[in-house]
Amino acid sequence: MATYLYKLGRFAFRRRRYVVLVWVALLALAGFGASSAATATSSSFSIPGTEAQKAFDLLSQRFPGASADGATARVVFKSPAGEKMTDAGNKAEVTNVTKELRRSSQQIASVTDPYAAHAVSKDGSTAYIKVDYKVSSMELTDKTKDALQDAGDRAQHDGYTVEIGGDALQAMPETGSGEIIGVVIAAIVLVVTFGSLIAAGLPLLTALIGVGIGVSTITALANVLDLGSTTSTLAMMIGLAVGIDYALFIVSRFRAEITEGREPEEAAGRAVGTAGSAVVFAGLTVVIALVGLAVVNIPMLSKMGFAAAGTVVIAVLIALTLIPALLGFAGKRVLRRKARKQEAPSGGDGQVAGAPVKPNGGTRWASFVLRRPVMVLLVGVIGLGAIAIPAASLEMGLPDDGSQPTSTTQRKAYDLLSDGFGPGFNGPLTAVTDVKGVDDGKAAVDEVRKKIAALDGVVSVSPAQYNKQHDTAMISVIPKDRPSSVKTEDLVHSIRDTGAEIKAETGATVLVTGATAMNIDFSQKMNDALLPYLALVVGLAFLLLMVVFRSVLVPLKAALGFLLSVVAALGAVVAVFQWGWLGSLFGVQQTGPIMSMMPIFMVGVVFGLAMDYEVFLVTRMREAYVHGERPGQAVVTGFKHGARVVCAAAVIMIAVFSGFIGASDSMIKMIGFGLAVAVFFDAFVVRMAIVPAVLALLGKRAWWLPRWLDRILPNVDVEGEGLNKHIEQQERRELVDA
Hints:
This protein is of the alpha+beta class. It has helices at 2-14, 16-36, 51-62, 88-102, 142-155, 178-194, 197-225, 231-259, 264-291, 299-330, 337-341, 361-371, 373-388, 409-421, 441-453, 486-506, 515-549, 553-578, 598-626, 631-658, 666-698, 707-712, 721-737; strands at residues 72-78, 108-112, 126-133, 161-166, 396-397, 429-434, 458-461, 465-466, 472-479, 509-513, 594-595.
C-alpha cells in the first residue's frame, strides 16, 4: 500500500494544477446541487421491530391520516391572576385567535377549539388551541410560521400569557459562534506547531474544502435519501476534525522529509507513502465504526453514520491527493523561515545534520514515563476510573420541549401545560386496540379502558375513538409523571403487560405508541444494541491493530485503553447533562436523561479517532524497534517524532468539537461535549501516558507475535518498509541506466 501511495503522492505533486482543478470543480458541483435542492425536511423517525412502531404502522393502515408526520402546534393561554379562561372576555379572545389561525395558511389541516375539545384546565387558568399541519415542520413556509407567531403575539396583553409549543416553530439547530472559535483555535495551534502560515493554512483550507463538498452533497441529497436536519451538522463536526488532522499528519511528514535533504517531489511521495498509509488505515477505522451503526437497525442512526462516513472518505482522499498537490505550489515555504535559510540539510526536528540533537518535549515526557511506569499507569487508570463512576447511573431518553432552553416559547408552553394539566400531559400515550376478528370488539375495548384506568400513574383515559370499520380503537392515556421519567416508562410496561392479559382473555391486541412510547422503545433498543456494537468495534480494533503492529499485546492494550476513555467520557457526560455538575458553565439549562444514541454514537466516533493517535504514535515506535533500537529507546523515539503532532491534532479536534457545545440544539451540544472530552481523555491520558507506561513494563513482549499468526496476517506495510525497498531498487536501476 505504501508503494502505491508513494506513486500517488508524486503524481499529485507533478499534476498539481489538474488535481486542484478537479477538487474545485467537485466543490462547485456539490455547491450547485445544494443550492438548487429543495429545503431539507425532518427525517422520518422509525424503530423497526418495536411495539410502538408496530402500533404506528397499524394506525397508518386503519386510520388514514391519523398518524401523519405533519407538524403540530399548541397555542397555550394563561389567564391573568384572579381570572379564568372561561370568562367571557378571555373566551372571546381565544375564539378570535382560533378563527384567525384557521384562515391564516393553506398548510393548516385543522385547528381545534379548546372549549369544544375540553382543552381547558380544571382550575380554568390554562387553555390551549391545537393546530395540525399538512406538512412537516421543515416544510412549513416562513409565512405560515409568521402567521402562527403573530397570532400569539397579538393575543398578548398585560397579565395575559400566550406561548407556542410543538414542533411547528422548530428551526435548524444553530451552532452559534463556538464553531468559528473552534476553527480559530485550530488555526492558532497549527501556526504554533508549524511556525509557518502556509503550512498552517493548508490543513485548514483542505478541511474546509472537504467539509464543503461533504455537507453540500448531503444537503443536495437530503430529500432524496430522507436525511434529517441534524445529519449535516454532525457530518460537519466529524469531517472538519478529521480533515484537519489527516492533512496535519501529511504536511508534518513532508516537512520532516524536506529537512532531511530530499527534493520536494520526493518528499511529497514519501509523506503520502508513509503518513498517508496511516491516514488510510485511520480513516478506514472511522468509516467502519460509523457504517457499523447500521447494525443497530435504526434508519435515522444508520443515515447519520453513512453521511458522516462519507465526509471522512472525502477527508482521506483530499489528504492523499489535494495536500501533495498544494505542497507542490508551496514547496519549501512550509518550513520555518529559519529552517529555509539553513544551507545544510537538517534532521526531522529542525536540527542541522551532524549537530547534537536536543531532546524535545516528547522525548523528555517519554523518558519520565520510562523511569516511573507503574506510577503513571496507576494515576492514569485510577483517574479515568474515578471519572467513569457516574456512567453507572446512566439514564437514556430523547429530548423534548422540556429540555429546551427556558428562554424559548416552546419551553414556556411546555411548563404552562405541565402546571395547568399535570406533568404527564406533555407526553400522552396512545393505546391502539386491534379487535379485528374479535366477537365482541366493543366489550374488549371497554375492558382495555377499564384496566388501564385502574393502573397506578394514570391521570385520565379518553373515550375510545374507532376507525370507519370499527375494527380498531385509539385510547389516549395521560400519565401522572413527565414524559422522560422512570415512572412513565414503568407505566408503559404496565399497560403492555395488561394488553398481554387482555389478548389472552379476549383475543384483542393492545399496542402502546405515541412520542413518549417511541422514545422509550428507542432508548431500550439503543441500550440493548450497545454491548454487541461495543464488542464488534473492540474486536475489529483488535484485529486491525494486530495486522498493523504485528503484535498481540499492543492491540489488546489499545482496545482496553479505548474502552477506558469512552467510559470515562460517558461518566463526564452524565455528571454534566444528567446530574447538572458544572451545567451552567456549558449552557445546560435543563438536566435529564442522556440522549439515547449518545453512548453508541460516541463509541463509534471515538473508536476511529483513538485509532488515529494509536497508529501515528505507535507505528514510529515499531519502526524504531524493527530497526534495532531497544524497546525503551523505541518508545522515546516514537514520542520524539510523533508526540507533538498527535498533541496538536488532539487539541484541534477538541477545539472543533467544543465549538458545537454552543449549539442551540441539546443533542448537538451533548455530542460536542462528549466527543471533546473523549478525545482529551484518549489522547492525553491513554495515548500519552498509559500507552508508554504499558509498553515500558512489557518490554520486548509488547511486540510478540506467534510465527503461525505472522504467516497468516496480511502485510499492509503501514510503516513503509516495502516502500524503502522499492525506492532502493528504483535508485539502483537509475544508476545502472546512467
